[in-house]
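Researcher: Please predict.
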Amino acid sequence: MGEQQKNAQAQEPDINQLRKVRREKLAQLQADGKDPFVITKYEQTHHSQEIKDKFDELEGKQVSIAGRMMSKRVMGKASFCNLQDLKGNIQSYVARDSVGEEAYKDFKKFDVGDLVGIEGEVFRTKTGEISVHAANITLLAKSLQILPEKYHGLTNTDLRYRQRYVDLIMNPGAKETFVKRSKIISAIRAYLNGEGFMEVETPMLVPNAGGAAARPFETHFNALDEDIKLRISLELYLKRLIVGGLERVYEIGRVFRNEGLDTRHNPEFTLMELYQAYTDYHGMMDLTENLYRHVAQEVLGTTKIVYGGVEMDLGRPFERITMVDAVKKYSGVDWNEVKTLDEARALAKEHHVEYEERHKKGDILNLFFEEFVEEHLVQPTFVMDHPVEISPLTKKKPENPDYVERFEFFMNGWEMANAYSELNDPIDQRERFKAQEALLAQGDEEANTTDEDFMNALEIGMPPTGGIGFGIDRMCMLLTDSAAIRDVIAFPTMKPIDK
């Protein structure tokens, strides 16, 4: 170990010793009959930002604030401390003559991180800072751990995700992100409720995980001695409700996919799916455009958003382009000229697009799209008319049954939503499920199996329906300018700490 490192370690306070001191302080408080943990409530009349915003009417008035003490300066008979609450932070002036000798002595032993309640008068200090002149001060909870050093904050990303509670205390931007996330979901609900949609709930534990191409998590239900799965999608149950006559339904809920972790994928994430009877995928495009505009305006106050320094304009009409035209535009290959699987494979080899033996012509078109097109779709874009091979729950285009009435919505090069004119022909649907089961037999772990109860619902009769799924976490990433999905999921999935 180098001399500098030794000196740095020698200067650092011993964390264990600091923790020991805090526990001793708590024990003394309890011995003196001042245990903060026996306090059950505290009357909080105002938040910090409200006092600042309404200073003109609150100056000279009594308020009661509560929060975490983030700093403390003891200067003889008078001290300053800073309290942080939900809305921000505010300074408090604590004088011995105002709070009393014993209370002031106790206050001097408070630690950064303690939760404190302060009653007092609103005033402005000589330096112009809006503050609360404490008359009573109450220790509401003793912090027995040590917060990160204020000026460096909690910068270790892994620790920020593992200890989100500390992240929220130390990083104002993290708190702002989760406040915005809540507002985004509220704005989605308000918009859909205003359009006559009903919010519903469907099962998370299912015998058959369908509605998407994903590998499910599996678990065991002891009472029935049955293996069951966690849902990968909301689709098949929401469609059952459409069959039942609930014409406009949506659900915002967690789904679970047994896949890897990266900046845009977490194995449990929030999906919003909605289904509307008597409309098609064009109706879903209009709804998506209007919904995104509404949410951005409500949450950000503008329809122009900036992500990673790139501006995206939700105010302009969204581009609408077919997958075939998009591939032609960015790769130069015209898929209308590709007649056979052999021709598709030859083009893939020529353009260095890797495919698997099981892939059909439509699968290879989709691989071209992923390889050459996605990264260019920065501004809001609807990519329409996907090949039938990759769309097992979608209506075919009447004039060209190789393709289906489906779109994916892209922004920033990411898929943000996926929508269909829903397949309501039970005979066609059964054939599609059979094709999926053949893929499963060939080793495709993401293929669907036939859901007999869903088939029964389709045979009862489902009206023409438009449906869409939105990735809520990605929407939150864009609207909060967050680099990774873990920044917008309060408690993301993490590797065990020993790994």
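Model: The first helix runs from residue 3 to 11.
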